[in-house]
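Query structure, 142 tokens:
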């Protein structure tokens, strides 16, 4: 059950999803991934990371949410009617996205599979995801 961290009776309820993916309702995980997908689909940085393969963007967001449940914090916001209106993933000091094999196995490896099997249009390789400095260099080249 998500932990309520803020509640306004007329406007907003904000939840912190604190459990691992196996015990967090799949509907909550998917709701956060969908909100992030819709908000960031045309973002230049994210499109670089998926090499323009927008059909894989939801899978990437799902992998990020699942990784956040393991090594960070995932927040979900609902309006008074219970409709999901926001979500985000944060990694605190000492943790970052994909800093463990557990995070990779929770969804990232599945997301990366179609991007790395025989694809020739990638401007980077899978190792890029483990090196923030390399991402910045590649973006500067664009």
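Result returned for the query:
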């Amino acid at each position: 059950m998500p932990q309520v961290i803020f509640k306004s009776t007329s406007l907003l309820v904000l939840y912190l999803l604190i459990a691992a993916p196996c015990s967090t309702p799949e509907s909550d995980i998917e709701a956060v991934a969908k909100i992030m997908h819709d908000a960031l689909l045309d973002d230049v940085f994210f499109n670089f990371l998926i090499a323009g393969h927008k059909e894989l963007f939801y899978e990437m967001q799902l992998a990020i949410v699942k990784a956040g449940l393991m090594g960070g914090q995932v927040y979900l916001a609902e309006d008074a009617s219970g409709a999901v209106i926001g979500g985000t993933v944060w990694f605190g000091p000492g943790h970052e996205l994909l800093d463990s094999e557990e995070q990779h196995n929770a969804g990232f490896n599945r997301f990366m599979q179609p991007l790395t099997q025989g694809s020739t249009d990638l401007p980077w390789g899978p190792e890029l995801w483990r090196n923030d400095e390399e991402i910045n260099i590649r973006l500067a080249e664009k």
